[in-house]
């Protein structure tokens, strides 16, 4: 494939934020039916700058529903289970299913060359020489966070998002290495979501951290105005979402009076918020679902990164449990408030949510687009 080896990460300019230790660049082939992999190390800590590590054919790559329907059906089912009241047998069965799904991703999507090189990276990480891993990919659907490496002759390994200070990014824009959050905006229409109220209360408490917290936005027009005027560096959206398989750019977020679409994030109307390079957290549960759907994360992630120039975007690949989702967000913001780097804050939120109920895959559902080593300072 022409040009694959020349693709490189362009980190943002910060004196005290290191680039990721390892970057896994994943490129779709010219026919759209294969994934090409390149490992790189901006600081040379892997012993090389760029190294091709194989190709995997993926015939259904152009159709995310065909590619991921079986995987996400099982994860959606597990996410709908009650958090409390599972028997020990049910809990173990859920954990086994999640592990099996993650290991299948490793078997199916990691070429042999990458598998071999991955375990060398694990050895470097375990020796304390590297810690952060960025997936740089131009496809938004595959949950790389969920890959669970396993080989009989290698030490036990956790999911990628737990073993590493992990994030992903689009190849189209440079990474922002830091963000000062002085003002926050909650977008939370008054829908029938019990735990959205918990997120409302949490944001009210954030005002005590020397942070300006604006009154919640509930209607579409107010959100569109926010994009034009800016003035906040953190925007947290707690609502329903729905996926349109025929057109990812029509996957809406439900407001009290209307719907928000990824296409609403047109550059001509987002200048104000774009200048802030904000952190956007889309904590959308999925209503009215029958059978399999995706969350529309791909359409939103690409638009938020490209048209809002976001420092970071967080959203869920599949359905999440309301209670666990609210707790996940609170744990993430708490970690940021204590000075954790962006990737570490999200990993800590996963750890807290996993401990609450490891058989529910909500802890694994979230993806982070951003610099894994970014410094996000909350408050003035």
Overall description:
Helix 1 packs antiparallel against helix 2. The chain contains eleven helices and 15 strands. The strands form four sheets. A six-stranded mixed β-sheet has the order 8-7-9-12-13-14, sandwiched between helices. Strands 3-2-1-4-5 form a five-stranded mixed β-sheet. It is of the alpha/beta class and 380 residues long.
Main pleated-sheet profile: 6 strands, mixed
Whole-number tally of structural domains: 2
Per the CATH scheme, the topology name of the largest domain is: Rossmann fold
Average predicted confidence as pLDDT: 88
The side-by-side strand order for the widest beta sheet comes to: 8-7-9-12-13-14
- Class of the largest domain, according to the CATH hierarchy? Alpha Beta
Second-tier CATH architecture of the largest domain: 3-Layer(aba) Sandwich
Number of helices: 11
Give the terminus-to-terminus CA distance.
48 Å
Q: How many distinct beta strands?
A: 15
Which secondary-structure class do the elements indicate? alpha/beta
Q: Tell me, what's the shape? A: globular
Following the backbone from N to C, one meets helices and strands in this order, namely: EEEHHHEHEEEHEHEEEHEHEHHHEE
Give helix % range.
Answer: 25-40%
* Rg measurement, Å: 20 Å
Give the low-pLDDT segments.
1-14, 287-294
Instruction: Report the β-strand fraction as a percent range.
Output: 15-25%
